[in-house]
Amino acid sequence: MTIPRLLVVDDDAEVRQMLTQFLRQNGAHVLPAASEHDIRRHMETGRIDLILLDVMLGDENGVKICERLRAEQDVPIIMVSALSADSDRMAGYAAGADDYIAKPFNTDLLLARIKAVLARARRSSSLAHRRRKQRFTFAGWVFDAKRDEVISPDGYQVALSRREIALLQVFLANPLIPLTRAEIAAALDLDGDGGADGQGRALDVLVGRLRTKIEADPKRPNLLRTERGVGYVLAVDVRSEDA
Predict the structure, then answer these.
(1) Cβ proximity of 66 and 95 under 8 Å
(2) What strands lie across the sheet with 231-234, from one edge to the other?
(3) Which residues, in sequence order, are bridge partners of residue 8?
(4) b/e map of 74-83 (b: 16 or more CB within 10 Å)?
(5) Fold for domain 133-242?
């Protein structure tokens, strides 16, 4: 249920805004960046699942940035460039890029390539780390993902529906990150009558039900807080452990 956190790196503000808006509309948490300094600042403050990296960044070279990042970590990188010759593509792959897309590109095709790279990364991670983190603690609460059990700070088991458990898992995977209604709905594959408005109402009802189960005062929530103009945020730290 983890919402992918993508880093869009382009020195063209219009391109950066267009890609950021498009990917957010398709269920991703997107952070814009214009330089290597921005990349490293974002990576120091939270998880990044994939970097969409332009090759030509003003005075900086995206290929060299890719090389430096790849020497330090395994974050998936898709390079984007107006340079489409085979030699340019090979330079990107040699630097460690997971994929290389030439401009101009179809945004739906870009989205498909992003999903494919993320899927490969998840499979590789699963094979390398068989044990999954299955136990989460937050504000005295314990969630056992293996058993789908929620234990209150007083030691009582609280019954949640499957949909409520799925919603809780989305928040536990993204603590302290304000999530839009669209991001949460996409992660839950939540449908609602009346299009986006109906979907939003269905999500608000679901959040309200979860609050009645885990908040001391659902009308004044301290855990699942409303972010005005954005959506919701799990406003506490989460600690995860292997099962």
Answers:
(1) yes
(2) 179-180, 231-234, 224-227
(3) 32, 52
(4) ebbbbbbbeb
(5) Arc Repressor Mutant, subunit A (1.10.10)
Judging by beta carbons within 10 Å of its beta carbon (0-12, 13-18, 19+), is residue 44 exposed, middle or buried? exposed
Angstrom distance (rounded) from CA 127 to CA 121: 10
CA–CA separation, 38 and 59 (whole Å): 14
Query: Which candidate, 1, 12, 7, 28, places its Cα nearest to that of 111?
Result: 28
- The encoded tokens of residue 88 equal 């340019």
Q: Show me where the domains of the chain are located.
A: 5-128, 133-242
The structure tokens listed for 135 are: 């136990």
Q: At 126, is the pLDDT very low, low, confident or very high (cuts 50, 70, 90)? A: very low
Task: Report how far residue 121's alpha carbon sits from residue 98's, in angstroms, rounded to the nearest whole number.
Answer: 10
- The pTM is what? 0.57
231: left (phi over 0), alpha (psi -120 to 50) or beta: left
pLDDT in tens, 42-81: 988 878 899 999 998 888 899 999 999 988 888 899 999 8
Fold for the domain defined by 5-128: Rossmann fold (3.40.50)
